[in-house]
């Protein structure tokens, strides 16, 4: 595609998760989901619940998420709106 049509750009702009903490993700109003490749399920995770559990200063990439169904390690994906576009971190 030669030129970009904003309405066609629903693809996420993907960025590395880096050292993003739970606290930061909440302040930036991001949404956290965990992907299970085995079940092909994406499950939303409550960031506030993580903070309440004392993990507010923890880096999201260091949190261990397990799939409720198969027990496999899930992949955290954070997404939010930035400058009018959808951005995803994983
Ligand atoms: Zn699973």
TL;DR of this structure?
With 90 residues, this protein is α+β, with helices and mostly antiparallel strands. Helices cover 17% and strands 30% of the residues.
Structural account:
With 90 residues, this protein is α+β, with helices and mostly antiparallel strands. It has one domain (19-89). It has two helices and five strands. Strands 1-5-4-2-3 form a five-stranded mixed beta sheet. A hairpin with a 4-residue loop joins strand 2 (31-36) and strand 3 (41-45). The longest helix is centred in the middle third of the chain and has 9 residues, at 47-55. It is globular, with a radius of gyration of 14 Å. The mean pLDDT is 87. It binds zinc ion. Zinc ion is lined by residues 36, 38-39, 67, 69-70, 72.
**Cofactors and ligands present?**
zinc ion
Secondary structure tally, helices: 2
Number of strands: 5
Q: Using only CA atoms, what is the Rg? A: 14 Å
Largest sheet: 5 strands, mixed
Strand order of the largest sheet: 1-5-4-2-3
The helix/strand order is EHEEHEE
Search tags:
single chain; 90 residues; alpha+beta; 2 helices; 5 strands; 30% strand; globular; binds zinc ion
Furnish the topology, listing elements before pairings.
Blueprint: E1 13-15, H1 22-27, E2 31-36, E3 41-45, H2 47-55, E4 75-82, E5 85-89
Parallel strand pairs: 1-5
Antiparallel strand pairs: 2-3, 2-4, 4-5
């Amino acid at each position: 595609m030669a030129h970009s049509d904003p309405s066609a750009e629903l693809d996420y702009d993907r960025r590395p998760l880096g050292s993003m903490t739970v606290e930061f993700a909440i302040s930036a109003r991001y949404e956290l989901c965990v992907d299970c490749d085995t079940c092909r399920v994406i499950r939303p995770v409550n960031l506030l619940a993580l903070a309440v559990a004392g993990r507010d200063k923890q880096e999201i990439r260091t949190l261990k998420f397990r799939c409720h169904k198969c027990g496999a390690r899930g992949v955290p994906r954070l997404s939010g709106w930035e400058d009018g576009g959808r951005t995803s971190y994983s």
